[in-house]
Each structure stands twice: as C-alpha cells, then as structure tokens.
Write a sequence for this structure.
C-alpha cells in the first residue's frame, strides 16, 4: 500500500518567532568553523569559566555516587542555600520551602507562567525586552501587553504606566526585569516598591526576573521580595555565576504555590539537572572570584562607553547593570537585521539586531554584549571603526 508523504504542519502554538540572538550565534559559529575570526557580542554569555569550587564540586560528584534524579523541587541543601542567599544579599528571610530549583530561569518561566496564568491571560512586559518572554507567551497562549520604555522614561517602568495599561484593559500579570535586557536599565528601589504595591492593590500577579542581580555597576539591585511576599521571583546561575550551559536556576514562589510548581515540575521536567545542582551550591561560596569577573565587565563597559560615541554610536540606553549596550543605529540604517548581517559577514562582529527585542522600533537599534574578554572589546571597536566608515 503506497502512502503519499505529506508535510507535517506544526501546531499553531508553535508558530513563534525565532530568538534571533541564538540564530546569530549559530551563524557566527558556522563562520568560525570555516576559519573566520569572530568577536562574539550576540549572546549574553560570560566568557569566564564557572568558579573553581563549582567545577571541583561537579568533578567530585561525578567520581562518587550515581547521578540520579533529585526531588522535583531540587536538592534540599541547594534550596536552603538559595534561601540563605536572600538573607545575606538582601536581608530578607525566605523559607526554603518557597524555593524551587529549575532548569535555568527558562525552565522557571514555564513553571511560573503555567502556575499563575490560564490561556488568554494578559501579561505586561517591557518593550524593548527579553525576546523569549513574548515567544514563551505565544507557545502558552498568553497575550503580551507592551509597556514602552525609552529615553523619555529613563528606560524604566513606572507604576503609573502599569495602572494605565490595566485601566485600558485588565492585566492578569506583570513580568518585570531589573537590570533589564537589552537596555541594562534598572528600576529604582522606590519604583519597584510602587509597582509591587500597585500590583497587589489591583490583583495583578507580579513576576520579577532578577537574573542580572549581582551585575550592577553603581548601586545594588533590590529584590521584589523586599516589597511583596506575593511576588514570584525568577533567578538563575547563568549570568553572575557564569553557569549558562549548566542550565540551572530557581524560583521563589508564595508558599501556597509550592505544591503547584512541584506538580508541574514532576511531570514537565521530573527534576532539574542533578550535577548542576550539586555544583551550584558552591557558586555562593565563590563571590571573590565572581567579583573579579565582574570587574572585567566593568572595564569592558568603560572601553565601549568611551569608544562607541566617537564612532557615531552615541545614543545608548543607561547600562546600569547586566552586560549589554543597546545602541541606536538609525544614523546608519533603518534595517538593523541587514546591518547586523553585514557587521557579521564583513567585519566579523556578531551582534543582535534590535528587532529581537522590540517589534516596534527595533529596526533602528542593535545590542552588544560585553560579557566577553577585554581584548574582544578593543578589537570590536577597531573593526566597527572600519565598518562604519564605509
Ligand atoms: C532577562 C533574561 N531572563 C532570562 C534569561 C534566561 O536565562 P537562563 O535560562 O540561562 O537562566 C535571559 C538570558 O539571556 C535573560 O536575558
């Protein structure tokens, strides 16, 4: 019996946009495999290895007992260590029972969004913002509501903007990051308090993405838990702790949601990666090493902030934290995709076009990550100079 081969149409929910930074990374890797020398500024990824204690803990674990599943919510010792981190870093008491270890913060988003929102829920996000928010919402049937941030509001969200969006059409949730990607902008502690209070008053579920905490250059970031015990906090070992590939992060949820997240994680992930959990415990004991890595970002940031304006890239978002510079490139192009393509192929600099972060004005912006090595920043400036002159 012959059967006609038919193309399989993907489900409608899978029709989400690509994460362009990851597409650029793939393209840059291909060029590198062909022998090109690429300066990687496309993905927010530390070039430093994880701290020594982290690597040693993983090696010791491998040499020991089998690496089996842990409890769905993670190792008790890691959950306790994460809870202690809130006392040490922010002076906040967090019950370890409220901590769920996840497969990166990306795994945490899925658990948090499923735990908090039914299909059709409207969730406000910063625009420009982290591309995966919008894409995960698409796959889960949630609606993204844009809160525009730009130079007129210091790239920060205000409680008034949240109220305005909620008045226009009821919001179910707010997902806020500070420091933010791609801008680096930070919310003040006062604005975070006002936003948390607004959300509590209006019944808007508040999720705070704190993945760039630790990576601030002038003032420390405050956790949303200082202002609300109803907030859901998302965090990760990827950025400050230099553990992107270990795929390990965590959530802090209100205690009544712990069991919900546990049930979700049992079936969607079984448990977060065991080896990474064992190793991650040592990350909190590696602050000196991690601060030295951050000093490198600080130097990279200075090099670019000093060098870019002279090349005509003088409109930059605040860069209070994280390791990104978000530059207006409208002097050179109104097609940031083409611009970044040419930058990669002609100058060997991998950068992410603004359209990844902002569907409205991203065609006139570009994001550069300065999480790489200092020599890469100097080389990027040299190559940019030649490229922009043409
Ligand atoms: C704002 C923000 N949240 C979450 C993530 C995801 O990180 P991970 O899944 O590695 O924890 C990223 C990665 O770039 C990010 O920029």
């Amino acid at each position: 019996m012959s059967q006609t081969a038919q193309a399989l149409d993907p489900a409608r929910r899978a029709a989400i946009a690509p994460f362009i930074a990851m597409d650029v990374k793939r393209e840059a890797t291909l060029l590198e495999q062909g022998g090109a020398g690429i300066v990687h500024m496309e993905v927010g990824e530390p070039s430093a290895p994880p701290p020594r204690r982290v690597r040693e803990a993983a090696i010791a674990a491998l040499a020991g007992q089998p690496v089996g599943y842990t409890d769905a919510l993670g190792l008790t010792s890691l959950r306790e260590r994460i809870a202690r981190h809130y006392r040490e870093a922010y002076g906040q008491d967090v019950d370890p029972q409220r901590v769920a270890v996840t497969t990166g913060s990306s795994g945490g988003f899925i658990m948090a969004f499923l735990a908090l929102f039914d299909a059709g829920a409207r969730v406000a996000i910063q625009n420009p913002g982290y591309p995966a928010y919008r894409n995960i919402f698409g796959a889960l049937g949630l609606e993204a509501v844009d809160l525009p941030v730009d130079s007129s509001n210091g790239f920060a969200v205000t409680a008034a903007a949240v109220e305005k969006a909620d008045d226009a059409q009821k919001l179910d949730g707010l997902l806020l990051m500070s420091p933010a990607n791609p801008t680096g902008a930070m919310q003040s502690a006062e604005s975070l308090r006002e936003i948390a209070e607004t959300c509590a008053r209006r019944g808007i579920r508040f999720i705070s993405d704190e993945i760039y905490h630790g990576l601030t250059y002038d003032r420390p970031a405050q956790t949303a838990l200082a202002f609300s015990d109803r907030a859901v906090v998302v965090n990760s070992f990827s950025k400050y702790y230099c553990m992107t590939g270990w795929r390990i992060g965590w959530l802090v949820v209100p205690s009544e949601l712990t069991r919900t997240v546990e049930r979700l994680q049992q079936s969607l992930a079984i448990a977060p990666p065991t080896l990474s959990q064992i190793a991650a415990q040592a990350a909190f004991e590696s602050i000196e090493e991690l601060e030295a890595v951050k000093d490198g970002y600080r130097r990279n940031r200075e090099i670019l902030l000093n060098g870019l304006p002279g090349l005509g890239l003088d409109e930059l978002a605040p860069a209070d934290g994280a390791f990104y510079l978000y530059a207006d490139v409208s002097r050179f192009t109104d097609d940031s995709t083409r611009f970044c393509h040419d930058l990669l192929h002609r100058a060997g600099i991998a950068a992410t076009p603004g359209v990844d972060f902002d569907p409205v004005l991203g065609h006139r912006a570009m994001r550069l990550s300065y999480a790489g090595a200092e020599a890469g920043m100097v080389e990027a400036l040299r190559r940019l100079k030649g490229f922009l002159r043409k």
User: Anything to note?
Assistant: The first strand starts at residue 39 and ends at 40. The chain has a mean pLDDT of 96. The two ends are 62 Å apart (CA to CA).
